[in-house]
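Thread amino acids onto this structure.
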């Protein structure tokens, strides 16, 4: 056990040093991939981590996410990287967790509690005959008072400006004192670099040192995939049951209670089906065939899309409510299921209407991130309806829905990173510039990876002619657009020339290749 603790702490220390080397004054790119490889190797070498198929899948998914950061270097790829990292760490140190949501929370909990983890591991470390446990026993008596004093000091500083001034002066003097000592012995080091190393050490420790409390894992183990009929005995009433019984009298104990809920459900689904049938009929006759934009076309589509998306989410919530418990086992529930299935089909038709609306929006106003987001959200709604159908048909629990949808959403998130969305948006809009009313300010504000294509197509970037646009408020809007593009190209060149190999990524390389910067670096 002592040797294991020594190795865990050594790997965390080396990880902190590697973090400081890779990320100090660097952009997130190739360095993320190198850091991930280190974490993956240490985790899989750890004998306490069981190498299950699930862990290998999420480890591979995180490695793919890190590679996609180097290939695409987008905000989406970086967000996906962090999510995949937390999921991998959550599953690595909590082997019995089954959902991505619980794994995500478990990983965050592990990182937040890193001081307690570190103290527990350090108390087991020994150097020869010298043991650190007595030292950390003493630290326990100091740690909590320091935290309490810090919290109240912050409160007092917020309450009194004079107290805040003296506290700031004292902290500044303490910081200068340690800064002078550091510069006296190590003239090349700085407080900022040490803080950066400490952050890397804490982060790496949180990712590698498993949290000893498995309460979250044990709580999730109680959740089941399959619904079971609950027969409530007289001696097993919960406090909430007793409270409701106080206000409802004998309604809960009557045999007609389930039948009443069934009748209410049938009436509700019949009414909802008729209501949605009316809306779908209107959409099919006015939107699906022969639609011609008129009036406030953009506002009409935008408002209608938001309302429909919200209604689809509410529809799934209503179905989950009625099929949450014993109504699934009611002998006359076939009619209710049929009505629910009909409403699911109608909601699927509603999703088609959302897709058509978004398609018209893209046809007349071009691609944007928000319009692509509507397409993605419609896809998620289709998946959600499909899993809700499985939940009703197979009598599954809501936990099953979370488990299934979490895995599917993560897989889709990883898949969406394969596409370079900024370049797709610019290419589509500029290739359809004659038919699409594009927003040139939006296009020229996208990431630097689009600069080569924008520079090639300067002649296609025209300000709109409408009087209510931003370009109408300035003189010579075409010149302003070109100046903005030139400034962005200049900023990229300046940044790229200062970057090191740790910040290398494929989009920057391709953009630099277009502007001839790679040749200049080779000559240097």
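Threaded sequence (524 positions):
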């Amino acid at each position: 056990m002592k040797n294991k603790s020594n190795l865990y702490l050594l790997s965390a220390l080396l990880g902190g040093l590697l973090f400081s080397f890779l990320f100090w004054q660097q952009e997130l790119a190739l360095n993320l991939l190198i850091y991930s490889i280190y974490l993956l190797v240490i985790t899989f070498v750890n004998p306490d981590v069981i190498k299950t198929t699930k862990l290998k899948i999420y480890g591979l998914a995180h490695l793919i996410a890190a590679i996609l950061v180097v290939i695409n270097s987008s905000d989406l790829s970086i967000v996906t990287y962090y999510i995949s990292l937390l999921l991998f760490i959550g599953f690595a140190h909590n082997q019995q967790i089954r959902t991505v949501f619980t794994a995500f929370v478990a990983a965050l909990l592990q990182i937040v509690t890193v001081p307690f983890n570190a103290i527990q591991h350090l108390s087991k470390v020994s150097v020869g005959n010298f043991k650190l446990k007595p030292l950390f026993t003493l630290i326990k008596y100091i740690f909590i008072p320091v935290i309490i004093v810090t919290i109240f000091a912050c409160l007092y500083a917020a309450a009194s400006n004079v107290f805040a001034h003296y506290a700031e002066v004292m902290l500044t003097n303490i910081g200068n004192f340690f800064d002078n000592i550091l510069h006296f012995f190590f003239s090349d080091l700085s407080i900022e670099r040490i803080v950066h190393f400490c952050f890397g050490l804490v982060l790496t420790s949180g990712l590698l040192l498993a949290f000893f409390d498995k309460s979250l894992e044990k709580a999730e183990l109680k959740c089941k995939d399959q619904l079971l009929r609950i027969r409530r005995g007289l001696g097993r009433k919960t406090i909430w049951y007793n409270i409701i019984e106080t206000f409802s009298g004998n309604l809960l104990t009557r045999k007609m209670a389930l039948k009443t809920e069934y009748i209410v459900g049938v009436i509700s689904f019949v009414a909802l089906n008729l209501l949605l049938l009316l809306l779908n009929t209107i959409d099919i006759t006015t939107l699906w065939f022969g639609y011609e934009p008129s009036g406030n076309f953009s506002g009409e589509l935008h408002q209608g899309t938001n309302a429909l998306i919200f209604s689809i989410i509410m529809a799934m919530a209503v179905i989950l409510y009625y099929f949450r418990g014993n109504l699934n086992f009611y002998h006359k529930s076939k009619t209710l299921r049929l009505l629910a299935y009909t409403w699911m089909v109608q909601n699927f038709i509603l999703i088609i209407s959302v897709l058509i609306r978004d398609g018209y929006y893209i046809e007349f106003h071009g691609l944007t991130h928000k319009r692509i987001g509507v397409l993605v959200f419609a896809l998620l709604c289709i998946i959600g309806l499909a899993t809700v159908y499985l939940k009703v048909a197979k009598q599954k629990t809501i936990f099953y829905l979370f488990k299934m949808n979490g895995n599917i959403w993560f897989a889709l998130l990883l898949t969406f990173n394969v596409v370079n969305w900024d370049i797709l948006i610019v290419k589509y809009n500029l290739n359809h510039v004659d038919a699409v009313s594009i927003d040139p300010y939006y296009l020229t504000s996208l990431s630097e990876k689009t600069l080569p294509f924008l520079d090639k197509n300067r002649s296609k970037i025209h300000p709109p002619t409408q009087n209510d646009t931003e370009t109408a408020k300035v003189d010579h809007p075409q010149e302003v657009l070109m100046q903005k593009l030139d400034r962005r190209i200049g900023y990229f060149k300046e940044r790229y020339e200062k970057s090191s190999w740790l910040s290398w990524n494929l989009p920057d390389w391709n953009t630099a290749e277009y502007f001839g910067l790679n040749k200049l670096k080779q000559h240097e």
